[in-house]
Amino acid sequence: MSVITVKTAPIEGQKPGTSGLRKKTRVFMQPHYLENFVAAIWDAIGGVAGKTLVLGGDGRYFNDRAAQVILRMAAAGGAAKVIVGQGALLSTPAASNLIRQRATDGGIIMSASHNPGGPDEDFGVKFNMPNGGPAPEEVTNRMVAATQSISEYRIYEAQDADLSTLGTSGMGDMKIEVVDPVADYAALMEKLFDFDAIRTLFQSGFRLRFDAMHAITGPYATAILEDTLGAPKGSVVNATPSPDFGGGHPDPNPIWAKDLMDVMMGDGAPDFGAASDGDGDRNMIVGRGCYVGASDSLAVLAANARIAPAYAAGLKGVARSMPTSRALDRVAARRGLDCYETPTGWKFFGNLLDDGRITLCGEESAGTGSDHVREKDGLWAVLLWLNILAKTGKSVQEMMNDHWAEFGRNFYSRHDYEAVDAEKANTMMDRLRTRLGDLVGSDVMGATVESADEFAYDDPVDGSRATGQGLRVAFAGGGRIVYRLSGTGTVGATLRVYIEEVSDDPATFTMDTQDALKDMIARADQIAGIREFTGRTAPDVRT
Ligand code: G16
Fold first, then answer.
1. Which domain range does residue 373 map to?
2. pTM surpassing 0.85?
3. Which of 407, 430, 458 is the last residue in one of the domains?
4. Residue 71, number of CB atoms within 10 A of its CB
């Protein structure tokens, strides 16, 4: 065995954000950049000697090269085995499943999720724990510390491992097991849902369009929806993963999945449309002529999950990230379920799931999931929707109408201002932070501010505290505005403004969301000075 020790030095800015370390691909390709971070991961988890890890990624540019580096560093660290998805591919939820199912010591996922891919776009690396979930802050803090003091790393000298052939090979003393990326995940889905009911639905002529956005869910969706459940061939479009996602932006929202939106809003639209993101953990649901916001989708799934075999015994509790609309809270209140409010970032759900406090959780950022893995899961959400539609016989629009009739409607939209000058964005947030106290009790364009604070979270399981998790302003009557800076962007700052208004008046339920939120949107600008600070007159993305 030949291990080389390479001298290196700390590199600025290797600090994981909301979900792992995300940077421009060319930054990751700089000498020592990836290696330093991987060495810091090994450090943060107490080394890899004797451990078994999972490795895979979403197939974006540099995925294949990074996999070889990580394997050589695992071998140098004395890892016993690395289980790799064929071609170094694994969707994020499938990686989470493999980590759990094979009782491993964790895994590395190579992805920048919904961010575009390519030599001039984004790359990312994150570590998931033995429970299958993203590393908590305590562990990522150790990674950061390690990146700041690194002076050398160890790497095994070897040719590339063959990751194209299924089976087990070796690198020094370390075993490399190449597995089918889809098989175990597909088997898990079959256990959770009533596949016969969904098959019958497709046999009855139900039409689906699943847009894989040239990303990793293509092979998963084709295998499950078309080959297993009988959706007509061609129901899954853009199904072949490409290193730059076909030049697109693999984020399932009405802007970036516009092709799907056009089809679903047009004449002769299929019954059901869905899209997933770069690494397969996000989802967008759209019915014929009916877009379902992520917060609403979460609420509908929570209200109807018992229809699916996996959740027939009922939910233990539910959770949502703080900026996610409170439509879920209404369901929880009616159904007598505990409802937790966590900071943005799937990692915060991990303890609640592990502790058996919740079964289902989700976020406004197109993420929904359950205790079946420890990541959000795009295809899972699509299958749960299909299971519910198959058993109720309702259309998506009927599901939404019935939901609002029972629970009322939380109109909700997120406005993103992308690549804003970071200093200006921070100044805006700082100024608002200092004014929060004065806002309480004041009138803003005809609405009274009931509370205004900066969100902090005390984890009820391990007692850890997360501070600085977004500025929120709540109004009498149930409206709310939340301001946050994204932790996943790679250029400047992305300002996210989350706007919510509630209505119990059925006459308003079919209103256009942006129209219903018009006054709240104006208040958001008045309170924070968004236009003034960003120099923008409109957001880049409205979800
Ligand atoms: C990640 C996290 C999510 C979070 C989202 C947006 O998603 O896993 O929990 O909601 O980022 O974060 P931010 O608002 O900080 O950009 P993904 O799909 O990018 O892994």
1. 185-407
2. yes
3. 407
4. 26
